[in-house]
Automatic annotation (TrEMBL):
Gene Ontology biological-process annotations: coenzyme A biosynthetic process
Catalytic activity entry: 3'-dephospho-CoA + ATP = ADP + CoA + H(+)
E.C. numbers: 2.7.1.24
Classification via NCBIfam families: dephospho-CoA kinase
Protein name according to UniProt: Dephospho-CoA kinase
Annotated keywords: ATP-binding, Coenzyme A biosynthesis, Cytoplasm, Kinase, Nucleotide-binding, Transferase
HAMAP family according to UniProt: Dephospho_CoA_kinase
Primary localization: cytoplasm
Length: 204
């Protein structure tokens, strides 16, 4: 089974590309953000470790993770962010391989892994090909503000906290520019798949 990794900065449209490949080509999609949420659900070892590392203030009354409280701790603290990633990422990786195995059992020939931190965390072994989705900065800010209800300054700060796209390009196989309509993005994604990924399926 072949895996196509889709990555990109916040607001780039990487999830839109993953959804296009699911809709147009029938590819199952594994979403790293979903796995990260599952990794710290109540009762999981992941949540237990997070509480041990950051204290009871990061847990809500219902026992679930207080994501806003945790984000406030780690966003401006590189050491804390690395500590959190060190807890969550091994749990996410285990869930990822479990999902991959489930798809193999179904006879799936390929799937998409929507993974925002694929380059930053050097998860190159998890995909046969990696696409980086890029978009103009102004458009990314507009999307983030509309989706998250934060200010433009806060959106820019979130973008600036991530590895620059120019650096990521050195680690990926292809770049998908998302600077037009959804129809245009769909055409670009399907064409790129046919040109550069489809051949992998015949290799086995």
């Amino acid at each position: 089974m072949k895996i196509l990794g889709i990555t990109g900065g916040i607001g780039s449209g990487k999830t839109a590309v993953a959804k296009i490949l699911n809709r147009e080509l029938g590819a199952p999609v594994i979403d790293a953000d979903d796995l990260a949420r599952k990794a710290v659900e109540p009762g999981t070892p992941g949540l237990t470790e997070v509480v041990e590392a950051f204290g009871p203030a990061v847990v809500l009354e219902d026992g679930s993770l207080d994501r806003k409280a945790l984000a406030a701790i780690v966003f401006h603290d590189e050491k804390a962010r690395k500590r959190l990633n060190g807890i969550v990422h091994p749990q996410v990786e285990a869930l990822f391989y479990k999902k991959v195995e489930e798809e193999k059992q179904k006879g799936t020939s390929w799937l998409v892994y929507d993974c925002p931190l694929m380059v930053e965390e050097k998860l190159f072994h998890q995909a046969d090909r990696i696409w980086l989705v890029r978009a103009p900065e102004k458009e990314r800010i507009r999307r983030i503000v509309a989706r998250s209800g934060i200010t433009e300054e806060e959106a820019k700060a979130r973008m600036d906290a991530q590895m620059p796209d120019e650096e990521k390009e050195a680690y990926v196989h292809s770049v998908v520019w998302n600077d037009g309509s959804m129809e245009a993005l769909s055409r670009v994604a399907v064409h790129l798949w046919e040109k550069s990924f489809k051949i992998l399926l015949s290799i086995g």
